[in-house]
Structures are given as C-alpha cells and as structure tokens.
Design a protein that fits this description.
Growth Hormone, Chain: A; 3 strands; globular; 19 helices; 515 residues; mainly alpha; three-stranded antiparallel β-sheet
Length: 515
C-alpha cells in the first residue's frame, strides 16, 4: 500500500505540470487580429463620417470672392491652370486643356438632413438580421461585405449624385448603412472569441478607438480634399479605395476565432481559451439556439440597451451636426471646419486607450470590481459628457467652443469600457446578437435625430435653436445612465451556455470570485 501511494504522488504532480495552462502570454496573434478589427471599424467610420464635412462643400454656392480665392490658391500650386468659370452651379477648372468638374447643389437644411440620416435607415433595417448571421457564421464575412459595398458605393457616389441628385445619394447612403450594420455585432462576436477576460478592457478599447480614429481621418479628408483642386468628389473616391484595401488585408490575415487561424501558436491558443470565457469546451461554440426569451427578459441586458440608446443619439449628433455648428456658429471655414471638428476626436482617441488601461489595471489588481469599473466608466462617458455638451451651447467663443467639444468627446469615450463591453461581460457567446438587438433599438431612436435637428434648427446661424438641441441630447445621456447604473450587472449569465448547457454552480462561483 505504501509503495503504491508513494509512486502515485510524483506521477500526479508531473501530469499537473505538463497540462498547466499559461498564466500570461505576451504579444501574439490576438493583437494582430485586434489591429485588423480596429482597421475595419476605422474604415467604416471614414466612409460614414466624411459626409458630415463634405456636405458643407457639396452645398456651398461659391461667390465671386470665393472663385478668386480658389483661383489664386490653384495658381500658386500649378501655373498651368489658366481659367476658372461657373456654369449652372458647376465649377470648371481648365488645366492643360483638360477640365476638372465638381458640382455644388442648392439643397436646403432639411434635404441635407435627409441625406445624412439615410445611412441610418439602412443601418437600422439590417442590424438585427446581421446579428443572427454573426451568431451563426462568425464576424469575418459581415466585415468583408461591409468593406466591399462601402468601397464600391463610395467610389461611385459622385457620379451617381450628379446623375440622380440627392435622392440617389440617399439611396447610396442607405446601402452603405445596410452594409455597416454588421460592424459592431461582428466585432463583439470576434472580440468575445479572441480577447481574454483579463485583457478585455485594454484590447477592446484599442479596437473601439477605430471609430474615433476613423472620424478624425474622415473630417480631415472632408476638409482638406474638399478644399483641394479635385473638390469634394475626391473624398468619396479616397474613402472607397481605402475600404477595398482593407478588404484585401482582412481576407488574407483575419480569422473568426483562434481555432480557425492557421499560424497561431498552441500556447497562445490555450491562453485565449482559458481566459476568454468560463467554459473551455464552449469557448468557440456560438451556433446553439439563441435564448431570446431569457435575453429580452433580463433587466441587466435592458440596462445596456438603454445606455446604447443615449450614447447612440449623442454620437449621431456629433457625427452629423458638429461640422455644421462649427461652420455656422463658431465661424470656421470649410477646411478649418474639418480640421477643428476632428480635434475632439484626436483627444478622444488617447482618452479611449487611457480608460481601457485604467479599467483593466483597477480590475486585475482588485482595486475595483468589474461591476463598479463599468458603472464609473459609463457615468464619466454620459453625465460628465452631458455637462460639457450643455456648456457648449452657452458660448460663441470659437476657442472655448472647441475646448468644450474636446472635453465632451474625451469624457464620452469612457462608455467603451462601460455599457459597450458589458454585453461581453453578460454573455460572451451571444454578445454579437445582443449588440445587434441593442443597436436596432438605439438606431430606431437615433434615426430621428437629423429630423429633430432640422425641425428645431430652422436657421443654422441661430445659437438659441442649437441650444435646445444640445440640452435635449445632454438630458437623454443622463437618463440613459441612470437606468444603466440601477439595473446593470457584470456577472456572466447562466443562459450564456444555452438553455441545456448551463455551467455548474462551482464555475459560476469561481467566476464571481474572480470579480
């Protein structure tokens, strides 16, 4: 008996050593995938947001003074250009006997808002179905469709608009919205598969900065290219070409999950599987029937939905109205409108990364529970942002206005480690489907933002009309956060494993202890 006992002990210890999972793993394939996800989100926002600035150039009818300024600017760059004239709102530049043409349109504010809002019609209609696609086949295919359609539509938009006017441009934006409806559901599905829970704040934040980075680039493109000799059409062409390049990179290097990646080291794969979800056997299984009844009756999920609505409305407002506000109220020209409109997003880019690192630092070192980290982040991203946003409407000082916009967007980005990542906290296996449903609800409200703005802001130079809109958006932000704080949870839900595969109580208790 003694001999048997003594021979069993070292064998058991040896097996434990050989099967122990890595507790840490440095730079690896998951970081490359995160970079690809960042790129996809950035490209989506470039093709989405550039119109916020470009439409100012598309709808500006130049004066004689403007022609003179444009002519002088062009002559400084290229002495071969010798004639500039105007025919029916069409600027014609003759260079070496070749004409470069770009047309401006006499669209009222209401028509401009219809063009801006058309994107979100398609975005809303396809959001829920594309979430089910992500749930069944993963996130890579919807991202590929998104980049392909946005690339083709962007390149063709200037010619299609010249042919059919604002109605055809609305149609182009609807198609782009349909394609981009898969962005966040796809990314949530992919992040749930690729990102370990102890890196969720950091890597998710890095990926989410794609929306901020994309908006920065979009505003720069819209401002600089619209003011260039090639005019506003070059903004569409450039963003379209970038989407097609991104499509090629994603196709070659992207993967739905670690098990499908051909070159990932086995150690990193085990590390991801161990820390990404609570049951290793179910980490890659997202094809089971979605428990919609339990999802839609969970107050924790509805807390995320409410925050989704408030944040979506404010982001829509920033995306579509800030360039116009800076141009009409703060007095910046088109080129500077694009440059200065992007300044809040430049600071927000760094703020997003900072919030993500702070969140992981506090939770991994037990300074804060995951629940409290999510609540604090979301409160900063809504209440603090609402205070700064409200203050903007009480000043017409251009410098102070830009500073307040920067503070608003910097605070706003904290929601990335608030309600947005909370979908993954609640149910990693169904985070994409929940995000799709939440975005569907959110965009049902968001889609009315341009129409509300156009009905209240009948004169874009009237600061009092703008103030009403600013206060409405700020109030919605605060209300959404109140609901989120009262009813949110950071605990993984039992239905995450499907109705017939709920984990043992021991695993749930272990998960709670980690938090």
């Amino acid at each position: 008996m003694k001999d048997t006992k003594y021979t069993e002990v070292p064998i058991k210890e040896n097996n434990k050593e050989t099967t122990e999972e890595p507790s840490e793993y440095g730079y690896g394939v998951r970081h490359v995938q995160s970079l690809l996800f960042f790129m996809c989100l950035a490209l989506g926002y470039i093709s989405r947001a550039q119109l916020g600035v470009t439409i100012v150039a598309m709808t500006s009818t130049p004066t004689n003074e403007t022609y003179l300024n444009v002519t002088n600017n062009i002559l400084e760059e290229d002495n071969s250009i010798n004639i500039l004239t105007l025919v029916n709102n069409e600027t014609v530049i003759f260079s070496n006997n070749e004409a470069i043409r770009f047309q401006t349109y006499d669209w009222p504010k209401s028509t401009q808002e219809m063009v801006m809002g058309a994107f979100f019609i398609g975005y809303l209609l396809m959001m829920f179905p594309i979430g089910l696609v992500c749930q069944r086949w993963g996130g890579k295919i919807p991202l590929q469709i998104c980049l392909f359609l946005n690339g083709i539509i962007s390149i063709g938009s200037p010619w299609l608009t010249a042919w059919g006017g604002w109605r055809v441009l609305c149609g182009c934006r609807v198609v782009q919205g349909l394609a981009q409806s898969g962005l966040y559901p796809s990314l949530h599905t992919l992040l749930a598969n690729w990102v370990p829970i102890n890196e969720r704040g950091r890597l998710s934040s890095y990926v989410y900065t794609g929306s901020v980075f994309g908006t920065i680039v979009a505003f720069q493109l819209g401002g600089v290219l619209s003011d260039s000799r090639w005019g506003w059409p070059s903004t569409f062409w450039t963003s379209g070409l970038m989407c097609l390049i991104g499509l090629a990179l994603l196709t070659v290097f992207g993967a739905n999950k670690p098990a499908e990646h051909r070159t990932i080291p086995e150690e990193e794969k085990r590390y991801i599987l161990r820390y990404s979800k609570e049951d290793d056997n179910k980490v890659s299984e997202t094809k089971s029937k979605t428990p919609w009844k339990k999802i839609l009756t969970s107050r924790h999920v509805w807390a995320c939905f409410s925050a989704n609505v408030g944040t979506g409305a404010s982001l829509m407002f920033f995306l579509t109205q800030v360039p116009t506000y800076m141009h009409a109220i703060l007095g910046f020209d088109i080129k500077n409108s694009g440059l200065l409109s992007s300044l809040p997003y430049i600071m927000a880019f760094f703020a997003t990364i900072t919030f993500g690192n702070i969140s992981d630092f506090c939770t991994n070192r037990k300074i804060l529970s995951i629940k409290n980290a999510r609540i604090i982040s979301n409160t900063i991203g809504t209440v603090f942002a609402a205070i700064c946003l409200s203050s903007i409407s009480y000043t017409q000082n251009s410098t102070l206005g830009v500073i307040l916009f920067i503070m608003t967007m910097s605070c706003h980005t904290a929601f990335h480690t608030g309600w947005l990542v909370n979908y993954i906290d609640l149910a990693p296996n169904y985070s994409g489907a929940m995000m799709a449903f939440g975005n569907t609800i959110g965009n049902s409200v968001v889609i009315f933002v341009p129409f509300v703005v156009s009905s209240i802001v009948t004169d874009v130079t009237n600061p009092f009309q703008w103030r009403i809109i600013f206060l409405l958006v700020a109030g919605l932000l605060v209300m959404s956060n109140v609901f989120f704080v009262l009813f949110m949870s950071a605990d993984i839900q039992s239905w995450n494993y499907g109705e017939t595969n709920e984990p043992e109580e021991a695993k749930l208790e272990e998960h709670s202890e980690k938090k």
